[in-house]
Design a protein that fits this description.
This protein is of the alpha/beta class. It contains 5 helices and 6 strands, in the order αβαβαβαβαββ. It has a single domain, classed as Aldehyde Dehydrogenase, Chain A, domain 1 (3-Layer(aba) Sandwich), CATH 3.40.605. This is retinal dehydrogenase.
């Protein structure tokens, strides 16, 4: 069941924000590439951008469409696949977006929607060894257990907030070999 939202807020904030976000990242898709860096003639120096791999996304209840698009668009633009866990209060938005993704012809497995409760579905995403990055938006009460469950090899980014004070944090680090 979804929670509902006033029409004007849904239209002018959520929908317009999603359209702008998708257009922005669609413009980046063909511009993320490596380049050659001029150095001494005896050396070759170049950069190469590669996808991170499988990205997990855990979205909040209050902006189910906008937050989903904010996590999905950059991940797909950069060539990643996604496992999205919507808030248990608002899964229908993500499931509908999933049906649209299937309808337009995305290959199976590129975007995966996993509805469920945080302690089960969220924990499964945050502890899965095949997930290379996790993007989380929610409360500090929810992020603390996830932070400690996440393997250190996973890059975990969290945007947490209590009482409208938003703070971006990075938990975990990439594995140092």
């Amino acid at each position: 069941m979804d929670t509902g939202k006033p029409f004007l807020q849904a239209y002018f904030i959520d929908l317009e924000g999603c359209i702008k976000t998708l257009r922005y990242y669609a413009g980046w898709a063909d511009k993320i590439q490596g380049r050659t860096i001029p150095v001494d003639e005896n050396f070759v120096c170049f950069t190469r951008h590669e996808p991170m791999g499988v990205c997990g996304a855990i979205t909040p209840w209050n902006f189910p469409l906008l937050m989903l698009v904010w996590k999905m668009a950059p991940a797909l633009c950069c060539g990643n696949t996604l496992v999205i866990k919507p808030a248990e209060q608002t899964p229908l938005t993500a499931l509908y977006i999933g049906s649209l993704i299937k309808e337009v012809g995305f290959p199976p497995g590129v975007v995966n929607i996993v509805p469920g409760y945080g302690p089960t579905a969220g924990a499964a995403i945050s502890t899965h060894q095949s997930i290379d990055k996790i993007a989380f938006t929610g409360s500090t009460k929810v992020v603390r257990p996830l932070q400690y469950q996440t393997p250190t090899a996973i890059l975990f980014r969290a945007c947490v907030g209590e009482r409208n004070a938003w703070l971006g944090l990075v938990y975990g680090t990439e594995l140092q070999l």
